[in-house]
Amino acid sequence: MEKICVAVRVRPRISEDSFGGNFWKVEENRISLHKVHGTPLSAYSYAFDHVFDESSTNASVYDLLTKDIINAAVEGFNGTAFAYGQTSSGKTYTMNGSETDPGIIPRAVEDIFRKIQMASDREFLIRVSYMEIYNEEINDLLVVENQKLQIHESLERGIFVAGLRQEIVNNAEQVLNLIKAGEVNRHFGETNMNARSSRSHTIFRMVIESKGKDSNSCDHMTSDAVRVSVLNLVDLAGSERIAKTGADGVRLKEGKHINKSLMILGNVINKLSEGSKQRGHIPYRDSKLTRILQPALGGNAKTSIVCTIAPEEVHIEETKGTLQFASRAKRITNCVQVNEILTDAALLKRQKIEIEELRGKLQGSHAEVLEQEILKLRNDMLKYELEREKLEMELEEERKSRDQWIKEQQMKIGSLSGVVSLSDCERNRSQTGQDSSRQCHKEGYNEFNSASQGDIFRTPCLKVPSNAFVATRSNSSTMPDYSPLPDAFSNVADENTWLKLNKGYVADLDSLQVTPARKVQSFPTSDITPGCLSEKYEQEVQDLKRQLELANRKINELERKNSEEAELDKQSTSMSPKHQREEDPQRLSKSVGNLKGNFEEVLSVLQRFVSDGKLSAAEVISTMSEIGAQLFDTLETHFTVDMDDGRSSTGNSALIHEQQKQLHERLNTILTSLESSESTVTEKEHVRSPCSNCKLKGSDLEETSISKETLCDELNSIKERCRGLEEEVSINNHLLEVSKDKYNSLEKEFLLLKEERDYLLLMVSESSHRLEMVSNQKENALKDLNTEVLRRKHLEGEVKQFTAAFASRQRSLKSFHDEFRSKVEKLRAQTIISVPKSLGCQD
Ligand SMILES: Nc1ncnc2c1ncn2[C@@H]1O[C@H](COP(=O)(O)OP(=O)(O)OP(=O)(O)O)[C@@H](O)[C@H]1O
After folding, report:
1. Is 589 annotated as a binding residue?
2. Residue of 670, 813, 4 lying closest to 336 (CA atoms)
3. For residue 782, pLDDT beyond 50
4. What residues form the membrane-spanning segments (predicted)?
5. 79 with 69: CB under 8 angstroms?
6. How far is residue 44's CA from residue 562's CA, in Å, rounded to a whole number?
7. Coil, strand, or helix at residue 581?
8. DSSP string, 105-136
9. Which of 231, 299, 396, 785 counts the most CB atoms within 10 A of its CB?
10. Quick check: 73 and 229 in contact, CB under 8 A?
């Protein structure tokens, strides 16, 4: 427990008092009100840690009042220094100073960087923020747009101002420039009492984080810990009497807010000064100022208050009020602890060292039982470490196999997507025509190849290059800074380093302020109770969790893709068979329709032969129409069956083939016979021509030759069409075969993928099971370690008892020794007396 350090500073007189009444006299650390002729007024005599008279400089105030707080802040203690007093009493002068005599803030900044440079064994990260509370609203002085900020409180982060800019800084000059820039945004105003009166409370905040540079350093106790301290340098607005300041309008409103918040600060101080028993509720929440300063008032911070007073008699009443405030503040005690974020490894290390120390102590005595106990403890610890290493290895192997497996899955899905895109292409081909289809076929395979090379399913690279502590954290200054710490890891400059640094714990600076009684903070993840668990072990569990999460995500992705593939597959099932069922058959139907049309045309031509009485042709036609009817029936059946079930189309296609062949042969026969019969007819007509000529009229002859020509043309075109149809049918058959093959391969792939998905799910459930086991083991290890700690404490108690017993034995031995000596001496004396006597007797 540490008392708040309170000092009073008297500002030099600004104007000479016209009334020569009472005055304030400073003697060492006491200030008292004296009558003009020098008699002190006993009721108004106050003693403080320091009292600075009118001739004091900012340098002396800083050295005596604040320097220690600044040094402690560099070492990991929270610190707050603030100036309180009536308007124009010199608060801003004390905090900011002048060109020739810089105030507490610039001196603190310079000192911090000087100290940091001297601490060569640690690396530091400094962040600064500058805010004002104006008319009970919090404004960011570093970013003008950040106005009316809200105070939030969370379990993890404690009290914090959301959205406040935190600038990472590397040197004092940078900080001083920021302050200068911030000052421009601060609210000042002219009053009767101060030409440049602060109309707001300002809080300049520095967050100092540090970490030992060498984790192998000899100082095992501290090297692994990250220290985070918060230093607040506060310049309060001055209390004012409206009558004196002559405030009206805006100034009046400001004055009311200032006085109200100072009154609440006074209430908080009063409550805190009452002592913990009577204290009751502390109204920190009544104003933003007290809420923000909560850790500094009765919390975990070294705090100093400089109360500035105006020496003029006209301000005597205000000065009395200020001194009473200071007296009460003096009674407040804070519980200051260094803020360390200890990793579990560091905790374990500490315990090991403590055990070693205990062992060393015990070696002095002969307590073999205790010795054995300690040996057992060490063995247990070794056992845990071995177990942990084994787990580590197992986890590593599992991770590797899972990665491998996921890669394979991705490759497979890649291939499948290639196949599917190929099938899509085929579908397009059937829509756009055969010529382009070949092109598309080619493209489809190209796509498939590129997809199988892994372009689509490339594993995202999650690794972030690790940087140095300060350099890495420095990146965060460039980010939009809406809270001291990011809400998600994605906002952190370097997630990896941050995680490594804090072992999964997101350090919250504000929270450190409001945890007064916490000496050592271990920050495992939320579901783990603070305990002694080795760093690596914990890290492994974290890694496993992350891996599992990643795997789950990938599985989900795989599943999603799988279902997409299945959907596509379904479509392609309905597109390949159905494509053949719907689209290819449609095309085939069209072809058959054409074929039918052509066939009918041929028939109609042949009909003419029939009508001309060419009986042989009529015979051929009847045969052909039989074949045709059979063919079309077969085709129809084929399409119907094909639409119902694409797989049963094999037999039908053979039938079609057969029918087509027959048709072809028969058509050829018909055509040959027609040609031959035609030539016979022509010849007969030629033979008959002399007598017929006499019978036929010239016009009839002409007509016959025209119809003959037409017939020949028609026959030729029929021949052409037949060939075309033949070709078309064969292409369609080929298409049908290709689609069937593709369907089969797709189906196989789908089944394979399904199997693999099931296997993956199995793996995941196994992993979860293992994770559960690991968690259980971890919990057990935690319990065991805690038991060991308890045992160690018990041992310590025993050692104490042992020492006490030893000491008492030593004491009794000493008294026995003394007694023995005195008896010996007595005996000796008696012997000396008795010897002369005996000698005398002999004489
Ligand atoms: N110790 C000092 N030495 C020299 N000048 C001082 C000292 N203290 C205050 N002053 C001067 O007194 C005037 C008022 O001081 P300052 O503005 O610091 O008061 P304040 O308490 O901050 O007032 P307000 O609350 O109205 O802002 C300033 O001109 C300042 O330069």
Report:
1. no
2. 4
3. yes
4. none
5. yes
6. 85
7. helix
8. HHHHHHHHHHHHHH-TTEEEEEEEEEEEEETT
9. 231
10. yes
**Alpha helical stretches, state H, 480-534:** 495-502, 509-513
Count CB-CB contacts under 10 A for residue 11. 21
Ligand 1 is surrounded, with C-beta below 6 A, by 11-12, 14, 85, 87-93, 194, 196-198, 237-238, 308
| 676 appears as a binding residue in the annotation | no
Annotated ligand binding at 245? The verdict is: no
Paired strand residues for 232:
80, 205
Task: Mean pLDDT check: name the lowest of 98-112, 390-404, 638-652.
Answer: 638-652
Q: What is the pLDDT of residues 35-50, one digit of tens each?
A: 877 777 777 889 999 9
- List the residue whose alpha carbon is closest to atom 20 of ligand 1: 88
Query: Among 143, 208, 142, which residue's Cα sits nearest to residue 177?
Result: 142
* Cα–Cα distance for residue pair 534/521, rounded to 1 Å: 15
Cα–Cα distance measured from residue 401 to residue 643, given in angstroms and rounded to the nearest whole number: 45
Residue-range domain boundaries for the chain: 2-338
Testing ligand 1's pocket by substitution, the residue of 53, 61, 84, 92 carrying the most ligand atoms inside 8 A of its CB is 92
As a whole-number percent, the residues of the chain with pLDDT over 70 amount to 58
Q: Please give the DSSP secondary-structure letter assigned to residue 452.
A: H
Q: Dihedral angle at the C-alpha atoms of 739, 745, 746, 749, nearest 10 degrees?
A: 180
pLDDT higher than threshold 70 for residue 277: no
- Tell me the pLDDT of the chain averaged across its residues: 72
Number of helical H runs and strand E runs in the chain? 22, 20
CB count in 10 Å sphere of residue 399: 19
148 DSSP assignment: S
Cα–Cα distances (Å) from 714 to 661, 672, 717, 718, in that order, read: 22, 14, 5, 6
Q: At what angle do helices 584-611 and 649-695 cross, to 10 degrees?
A: 20
Q: Are 252 and 242 in contact (CB under 8 A)?
A: yes
Cβ contacts of 495-502, under 8 Å, gap ≥ 24: 495/464, 496/463, 496/464, 496/466, 497/466, 497/467, 497/469, 497/472, 497/473, 498/472, 498/473, 500/466, 501/211, 501/226, 501/469, 502/226, 502/341, 502/343
The answer to whether 88 is a known ligand-binding residue is yes
Q: Give the residue, out of 93, 240, 265, 289, with the most ligand 1 atoms within 8 A of its beta carbon, to mutate for a pocket test.
A: 93
The whole-angstrom separation of Cα 107 and Cα 751 is: 74
Residue 820, Ramachandran bin (φ over 0: left; ψ between -120 and 50: alpha; else beta): alpha
The helix (H) or strand (E) run that includes residue 521 is strand 520-522
CATH of region 2-338? 3.40.850.10
Rounded Cα distance, 255 and 193, in Å: 12
Q: Which of 11, 86, 312, 319 to mutate to test the pocket of ligand 1 (most atoms within 8 A of CB)?
A: 11
Counting from 1 in the atom list of ligand 1, the atom nearest the Cα of 14 is 12
Query: Which pair of structure tokens corresponds to residue 753?
Result: 């993928």
Taking the centre of ligand 1 as the mean of its atom positions, its distance from the CA of residue 196, in whole angstroms, is 9
How far, in Å, from the CA of 209 to the mean position of ligand 1? 33
3-state DSSP assignment of residue 455: coil
CA of 182 to the centre of ligand 1 (A): 19
| Ligand 1 pocket test, candidate residues 88, 193, 306, 322, most atoms within 8 A of CB | 88
pLDDT of residue 693: 44
Cα–Cα distance measured from residue 269 to residue 283, given in angstroms and rounded to the nearest whole number:
10
Measure 36 CA to ligand 1 centroid, in angstroms: 25
The rounded distance, in Å, linking the Cα atoms of 518 and 387 is: 31
235 CA closest ligand 1 atom index: 22
Give the residue among 396, 738, 375 at the shortest CA–CA distance from 584: 738
Q: How far is the CA of 289 from the centre of ligand 1 (A)?
A: 21
